[in-house]
Design brief:
The protein has 159 residues and is of the alpha+beta class. The chain folds into two domains: 75 residues, 2-Layer Sandwich (GMP Synthetase, Chain A, domain 3); 58 residues, Roll (SH3 type barrels), CATH 2.30.30. It has three helices and eight strands. Strands 7-6-5-4-8 form a five-stranded antiparallel β-sheet. The chain has a three-stranded mixed β-sheet with strand order 1-2-3. 18% of the residues are buried.
Length: 159
């Protein structure tokens, strides 16, 4: 293998060409078999199963064409899923209207806040619960995740 950084760069370029952001790329080895995991998402819209299948085939072709790995490897291409942490502003904007759980710096250590994400801009986010509204800046967020909802409120369609 030419090295994980070279392979990651090639995969990042491939994702960029498809309009997909490479959120995470990891390699691991178990029993002499290499496992590659690429997690991607679209800034607008969803990453579909068809997208993942197409990207998998393109990565396999890239690895074969450039002789980047031996034939014995496992490749996983996926969307981030609900439990994936939100890190970038566009991820928060994309999830406006959803319930979030965030950890922020508090007076006595990390503090957990849950609420509906009502806004996200260049400065930070706005979370609202029945009782309160919070407006943490991005630098105050230790982590943020989308919470699953059984019957989420319907998003208004953009016209």
């Amino acid at each position: 293998m030419r090295g994980a950084p070279a392979l990651e760069g090639e995969i990042r370029t491939l994702f960029d060409d498809e309009g997909i952001v490479l959120l995470d790329f990891t390699t691991s080895s178990h029993g002499g078999r290499m496992t590659l995991r690429a997690v991607g998402d679209r800034k607008d819209g969803l990453l579909s199963i068809d997208d993942c299948v197409r990207l998998t085939r393109q990565i396999q072709h890239l690895i074969s064409e450039k002789c980047l790995l031996a034939d014995d490897y496992r490749l996983e291409v996926s969307s981030p899923g609900l439990d994936y942490p939100l890190r970038e502003m566009w991820q928060f904007v994309k999830n406006v209207g959803r319930m979030l759980k965030v950890n922020v710096h508090g007076e006595r250590g990390p503090r957990e806040i849950s609420g509906r994400l009502t806004a996200a801009d260049a400065e930070g986010i706005t979370l609202r619960s029945d009782e309160q509204e919070w407006t943490p800046r991005y630098g105050e967020l230790l982590n943020a995740r989308v919470l699953p909802e059984i019957n989420p409120p319907r998003k208004e369609s953009k016209r």
